[in-house]
Write a structure and sequence with these properties.
alpha/beta, 7-stranded mixed sheet, 37 helices, 41% helix
Length: 957
């Protein structure tokens, strides 16, 4: 027998009993094999996913040549799970742990260390690697930990489970096992060193980086490491390369495993279809089937000559002027120049994202090559019927409803991309802007989201539509995109010069140009900012093929919108003004949109118009109501009917005669995404930007003299009737029912500005930019003649400024820092201020909403999803709902204000429903019908009665 002293002189051997993967496998998978697998997949990702520009930039940052950079970063990727060589992790498989400790002197640890589950393996990686990398010469001084390359790499790899840990101190590094007993004793440290050395030998990562990575590149590497880990951890991937149980981990066997996993890695990457889309089409005609309009033609003629790589393009133009196609063309120009691997199109709402998806899909088919997996990302995208449904409720719940993939473009890759948190990794995406903005909140895996955007063209529609909270988040995201060198396209129908400047300056700061600019936006037009030089090129004004003059008619009214429809109409009230404005439609035909501020006022306005125009109400489709407080399937049906009735002409027959009398009563849901065209717009007073958005639905498409009623001619002078609520002194006074929907001071400013232009109309687009800037002008109050009005408006302005400052401060406090403020400590990207909860971070400030499911009580006491009793409540199968049942349930869910649901208790969730996350917060209402067959269904919830009828959900209090 060999003596203990002789054995100790022999170099330590790799212990293959240390496992890295075990669940679902025929036997434990050695941690060394997983380290090798992850390193090889990283190398395949380096080859297939990164552009030449990114590879060159990473190599330069490290001070290495590209080949050495690939080897070094692959080595790092393999090291991400080195912390699994620790007592708390190995003890999770008792049989393997017992075998490991069969020699009483082996693998010692302090009492309780094996149960220290709070010390996770990624933390162990951070603690152990800092010293190991230092020992092989990685530059830095532990007295200045932020500057130590060894610590930055260790902290980065410790973040592969979504959160970067606090920076270590010099004492913690040099006495790590004393501070963290979960690291174990000498044998544990020895095996970590052996695995470290063997992985370095196999990968050939002998080169030592000269410096660390800037924050934006550390994020990119983190994202690649996470993806490599996920791909390498798939059960089928492991089984395909799993060595036999007698594998001993000799150098020759390790080399053989490395060879096997190197061969398998490219197929893993290709099968995921992460890949790169290629922007191949280089002219407008190759991308679209129609000729460019003035805006699009100007971009096509001028933008390519300005673009040398990444940059930010800001496009401002009226609704309906082809901004979407302009953005997609610009994305192709910028994407090709910047070597982007795809694009993400961000929109303000789920409905706008749903409407944009097929347009981006068509663009991808015409203009792009390569990998074109296209995802739809928002909280309910997986339920959208136009997309590939999840195969089971379990699959839907694991993805948390984040996204859905089109089956024609994603093919088999959709199965991997459908996994949780992976939607932004696809080459192409369409989604709500919050999916992107969550990347700059200190949430788990925010670095992965940033990585998903780092090499794409980022397009933001309706950039004017966000309040101070969202605007601040957007500017911080633009800083990161500027640092990444990611191209950006911003679209807006109405954007003040001050807001435009703040967005452009944020992008320039990220790109390294800190001096502020002043952008004089032109409307319609565009301005390009070069990321490589920081130059803001001169804005280009373009013509519009849709010049017109809005005939704005201000009607001051006493507010009686919520008056019972059976009550006589009083003079000077809103009800009277509305009847007068709509009389031409009722008498002579044509279409009108009545846009209301609140759902309750829209519902009551609909009832009032039914009473005022009974013959119109009796004709099917002549009087419609659209708002958000319907069950989802009802809203979808009404939206589809409205688009068919008021949408773009589809044939010559559609414009051969004017449309019959028809009125749509709606809320702000019609401001965006819906391509609707009315002969007349009647709207309650709103801030100027919203009024201009609504005006964009007035005579939107060319129908000619025959396609409009005589009262709606000329077509180039659409009528906008604004109902201005006033008090008994004739002063603008927002009704109490509006609450905080709109800022009272902005309403005052808008009303005053519109009255000052009465009789002259508003030239679109000619007057728009001037008016948008004027309504926010700092000297607006000073130019008022009425002293009392000045004082009142100053008070309102002060309240608005205070609210905006509070929202901006909250956003600043909750977002991660800019890339230039990380300063070597990646924990800054996971740092969350005290009192800042995940709920606050993931909810728009001031949002107050809940979701209800109405269950209709039938005569036998059973509950169904429909009034007629045909749709039974689905029961859970094998503990959860099927995807089809889940889709059915969610189609009957309706949003309501959160205040409705604060003080009550709904019907209990059926067994198994709580297994699906999207159902857990549902409030189930037991609806009962009164004796009158025509009455609404009602439910008592807390102290209120909630009703549902053909006008949607309502409550009395």
């Amino acid at each position: 027998m060999m003596s203990r002293e002789t054995a100790s002189d022999r170099p330590p051997q790799l212990d293959v009993r240390l496992w890295g993967k075990e669940r679902g496998l025929p036997h434990p998978y050695p941690v060394m094999c997983h380290l090798l697998d992850s390193a090889s997949v990283f190398g395949a990702l380096w080859d297939a996913l990164l552009s030449d520009r990114q590879r060159t930039r990473l190599a330069a940052a490290l001070g290495l040549d590209p080949d050495d950079a690939r080897r070094t970063l692959s080595f790092w990727a393999g090291l991400h799970d080195l912390g699994k060589i620790s007592p708390p992790f190995q003890a999770q498989v008792p049989q393997a742990f017992a075998e490991l400790r069969s020699d009483t002197d082996a693998y010692a640890f302090a009492p309780g260390a094996d149960g220290e589950r709070s010390f996770r393996h990624e933390q162990a990686t951070h603690w152990a690697l800092t010293q190991l990398l230092n020992e092989v010469g990685y530059p830095g001084d532990f007295r200045r930990m932020r500057a130590a390359v060894s610590h930055q790499v260790a902290q980065m790899l410790g973040g592969h489970h979504g959160c970067y840990a606090t920076a270590l101190t010099a004492k913690e590094v040099t006495h790590a096992s004393s501070y963290r007993i979960g690291l174990g004793g000498e044998d544990w440290a020895e095996q970590r060193a052996v695995h470290f050395a063997e992985l370095r030998r196999v990968t050939g990562a002998w080169a030592v980086p000269k410096r660390g990575l800037p924050a934006e590149l550390a994020v990119v590497v983190t994202g690649l490491v996470i993806v490599a880990d996920w791909l390498a951890s798939q059960m089928e991937a492991i089984v395909a390369v799993m060595p036999a149980p007698e594998w001993r981990g000799t150098p020759g066997e390790v080399d053989e495993h490395w060879e096997r996993t190197q061969k398998a890695a490219p197929s893993l990457v290709a099968g995921s279809q992460l890949g790169r889309a290629r922007f191949e089409a280089d002219c407008f005609g190759d991308m679209f089937t129609f000729p460019p309009n003035a805006l699009q033609a100007d971009l096509a003629g001028e933008l390519p000559g300005l673009v040398n790589g990444a940059g930010l393009l800001l496009v401002t133009a009226p609704t309906g002027d082809g901004k979407t196609e302009a953005a997609l063309y610009a994305a192709s120009v910028l994407g090709r120049a910047a070597e982007a691997r795809g694009l993400f199109f961000a929109l303000p709402t789920m409905s706008t994202a749903d409407a944009m998806y097929p347009r981006v899909e068509a663009f991808a088919q015409h203009a792009l090559a390569g990998d074109r997996a296209l995802t739809l990302l928002h909280s309910m995208a997986w339920l959208a019927p136009a997309y590939s449904p999840a195969t089971s409720a379990d699959e839907a719940s694991t993805s948390q409803g984040e996204w859905s993939t089109d089956k024609e473009t994603a093919t088999e890759a959709g199965a991997w991309l459908r996994g949780r948190r992976r939607g932004l990794l696809a080459p192409l995406g369409v989604g709500t802007v919050d999916q992107a903005l969550s990347a700059i909140l200190p949430l788990d895996f925010n670095a992965l989201r940033l990585f998903g955007l780092a090499d794409k063209v980022f397009v933001v529609d309706e950039a004017h539509a966000y309040g101070p909270w969202m605007h601040q988040l957007l500017t911080r995201l633009l800083e990161w995109l500027g640092a990444f060198g990611a191209p950006v396209v911003l679209l807006s129908a109405t954007l003040s010069g001050r807001t435009a400047t703040s967005l452009i300056d944020a992008y320039r700061r990220g790109a390294g140009f800190f001096e502020p600019t002043s952008v004089a936006s032109c409307y319609p037009g565009w301005v390009f900012t070069d990321a490589s030089t920081g130059e803001v090129h001169a804005p280009r004004a373009v013509g519009s093929g849709r010049e017109r003059v809005l005939d704005v008619q201000m009607r001051q009214v006493l507010w009686d919108a919520m008056t019972n429809a059976a009550t006589p109409v009083r003079g000077g009230g809103r009800r009277e003004a509305l009847r007068e404005a709509l009389n031409p439609v009722v008498s002579d035909g044509g279409t009108a949109l009545v846009c209301c501020t609140t759902v309750a006022e829209a519902q009551q306005t609909f009832r009032d118009l039914c009473a005022a125009f009974p013959a119109l109400a009796a004709r099917e489709g002549a009087l419609r109501l659209l708002h958000a407080r319907y069950p989802a399937h009802v809203r979808q049906r009404i939206t589809a009917e409205s688009e068919a009735a008021y949408g773009k002409p589809r044939s010559e027959e559609d414009i051969a005669r004017s449309r019959p009398a028809s009125i749509l009563v709606a809320t702000q849901v019609v401001e965006q995404s819906l391509d609707l065209d009315f002969d007349l717009i009647v709207t309650d007073l709103a801030p100027l930007a919203q009024l201009l958005q609504r005006a964009g639905r007035a005579r939107r498409h060319a129908r000619g003299d025959t396609g409009r009623p005589a009262w709606a001619l000329p077509e180039e002078a659409p009528r906008l009737v604004v109902l201005e609520p006033v008090d008994d002194k004739g002063m603008t006074s927002a009704p109490r029912t509006w609450g905080s929907v709109y800022d009272a001071g902005l309403l005052q400013r808008t009303a005053h500005l519109l009255r000052s232009r009465s009789g002259g109309g508003i030239a679109v687009p000619g007057d728009v930019q001037e008016m948008v800037d004027a309504v926010y002008a700092e000297d607006f109050v000073e130019r008022l003649d009425d002293a009392s009005r000045r004082d009142e408006l100053q008070r309102m302005d002060a309240e608005r400024y205070a609210k905006e400052a509070a929202e901006t401060h909250m956003a600043t406090m909750t977002t991660i820092c800019g890339p230039y403020d990380v300063n070597g400590n990646l924990h800054e990207l996971s740092l969350r201020e005290a009192g800042v909860t995940e709920e606050l971070l993931t909810t728009r400030l001031g949002a107050d909403s809940g979701r209800v499911l109405c269950l209709y009580e039938q005569q036998d006491g059973s509950l169904t999803l429909d009034e007629g009793g045909r749709l039974e409540m689905p029961a859970a199968s094998r503990g959860a709902l099927t995807a089809l049942d889940l889709r059915t349930v969610m189609a009957h869910v309706a949003p309501v204000p959160g205040r409705w649901l604060r003080d009550g208790e709904g019907q209990p969730l059926p067994p198994g429903w709580d297994k699906t996350p999207v159902l857990r917060d549902l409030v189930l209402l037991r609806m009962q019908r009164a004796d009158d067959p025509g009455s609404a269904w009602t439910s008592r919830y807390g102290g209120r009665t909630i009703r549902i009828s053909d006008v949607g959900l309502e409550t009395d209090t």
